[in-house]
Write a structure and sequence with these properties.
Blueprint lengths: L1 E8 L7 H14 L3 E3 L4 E4 L2 H16 L5 E8 L7 H13 L3
Antiparallel strand pairs: 1-3, 1-4, 2-3
Helix pairs in contact: 1-2
Length: 98
């Protein structure tokens, strides 16, 4: 399972990096495969472990902000492994003409 999610504190102003870093810290400590970009953090693993990380990351932000927004997109594909990288590699191969 891949889950791309974004946790944003509401009412914290434009500079939210410090609060968002709390969520990313939870993801990194989880030990699950993950990638963070400018808009989302994507985590790969089994349903229970991934959703637990999303919950804890959201709680880490909400502990310092009275309101948060959570955006989540999931790709549930039983048996898939390393989808975090293989999905992108397939597209790159097509773009390279292979």
């Amino acid at each position: 399972m891949l889950v791309a999610f974004s946790v944003t504190p509401i009412g914290a102003g434009e500079g939210v990096a410090e609060l968002v870093a709390e969520a990313v810290r939870v993801v990194r400590a989880s030990g699950l495969p993950h990638e963070t970009n400018a808009m989302f953090t994507t985590v790969e693993g089994e349903w229970d472990e991934v959703m637990d990380v999303v919950r804890r990351a959201t709680e880490a932000v909400s502990a310092r902000s009275g309101r948060v927004s959570l955006v989540l997109k999931a790709d549930l594909r039983p048996g898939a492994t390393d989808a975090l990288h293989t999905k992108v590699e397939r597209v790159d191969r097509l773009l390279d003409g292979d």
